[in-house]
Amino acid sequence: MLNFNLHTTTEIVFGKDIEEQIGPRLKELGVHRILVHFGGSSARTTGLLDRVEKSLFAAGLAFVELGGVSPNPKVSLVRKGIALAEREGIDFVLAVGGGSVIDSAKAIAMGVATKTDPWQFASTGTKPDTTLPVGTVLTLAASGSESSNSCVLTNEETKEKRGITSETNRPLISFLDPENTYTVSKFQTGCGIVDIMMHTLERYLTPEGGESDITDRIAEGLLIAVRDAGRRAIANPRDYEARASLMWAGSVSHNDYTGCGRKRLFPVHKLEHELSAFRDEIAHGAGLSVLFPAWALYEMKNDFPRFAQLANRVFGVEMDFHHPERTAREGILTMKRFFEEIGMPTHLTQLGIKPENYAQLAANTVRTVKGPVKSYSALDEQAIIEIYKLAE
């Protein structure tokens, strides 16, 4: 097990009808002027935004709104948010939505505090050293951004999608009410299930970490719980316990708890970012459900025992101790079938990606990460193209 630091500072307020606590809690934290950041009309039509703002108003807190966040949040809106926050003297950003809204809010907060365009951090790999405090009211169990140290932005002009990772990115407080996810579509629920699982799988399937049985068991338990709760939430969107399990798992899966003692590389996320940058309509979870099985089939030869352990402990594949490669392969195919069961794509053609796009996408990926993608092996352009072929 590698040395590690675990720094999970976000206060989680979890449960039914917690919106009424938002105003009083933020007042206790010394907040004065809030930017309420959200996506489309659903935040208003579901009544959630009104409940949040009613709580803020009752607590005597001033606020302004900025909506319009789209999937794969755009740096252009972030820049508008920074200008608005500076003009209004904002001292707190409250995201009401899913991962895209939260990531956009994080970028606005860092831009105001550092006086630096957030794309500067994204494009250079530098880290902000300060930020405005951020809070979240979560509406989608998926990204884990409500307690993670990362955010992802898309530059629509250059068609680039890049992340910013810094401990300053962790929200100060997050309000998680599972009932706010009842209206999430089956497709978006499926995308969330995949994203949650991938945040743990990419910590679990990594070449460095040695013996880490406690962390492994935590990760495996989360994956099993998400698989089972995911099936229930797809079948019955108003299953509170299933929605609660997914919402809590989303936070735990990406606050680093399921990867303690292992080195985080996230190669599949890096491959996927280029897909959704290339075609903005590709949902992040959908890109992951296509690429993960292909990546796993390509890389399993470098660690058959670990892939076989995953197959056996999480997906119930009988262990073949003489030929662990058989167990590993069957585990990957079992997971692929699970993705299909919950309505997720597993082929690049389903995303509109064609063979003639492979070379450009592979080149973009290598350029973005400034060299081969770090994984079990160094994934250069040819290796990435081979993974695309396995995902056809």
From TrEMBL:
The keyword Transcription does not apply. Transmembrane segments: none annotated. Keywords: Oxidoreductase. Pfam families: ADH_Fe_C, Fe-ADH. Residues 10-178 form the Alcohol dehydrogenase iron-type/glycerol dehydrogenase GldA domain. InterPro entries: ADH_Fe/GldA, ADH_Fe_C, BDH-like. Residues 193-389 form the Fe-containing alcohol dehydrogenase-like C-terminal domain. It comes from the Bacteria. PANTHER family: ALCOHOL DEHYDROGENASE YQHD. This is NADH-dependent alcohol dehydrogenase. The gene is bdh.
